[in-house]
Amino acid sequence: MSTLTFGIIKPDAVRAGNQGKIIDRIVANGFKIRGMKLIHQTTKQAEGFYAVHAGKGFFGELTEFMSSGPCVVLALEKDGAVKAWRDLMGATNPAEAAEGTLRKDFASSIGENAVHGSDSDENAAVEISYFFSKLELV
Question: What domain range is 94 assigned to?
Fold first, then answer.
């Protein structure tokens, strides 16, 4: 069954000019892009998005990084979208990511790992609605 998931091409990947290559891979892997925009989050917006991690040791570093430059937010559709997107992204640590995954090919570290993806259908709905209105999803 076709479902939606949420993804971010993070500031490190955009800074390196890899957003087009990543989008090509997304489409080549059978995803339909239902929403996409280039944004530059404020620290406050990043803190709101990552509120679930507030109080954790990496929270400040994460929100500072995510507000350090433009990123591409995406609403992606495919059968089993959450799992399919997480499989395409690869392990959080690019050194442990499988060959052919986005993090293996485009990430430089655990902290700057090129892409974000929802971990459940429920979180995908919340994350999509944080960045997209219903009118922006096609």
Answer: 2-39+71-136
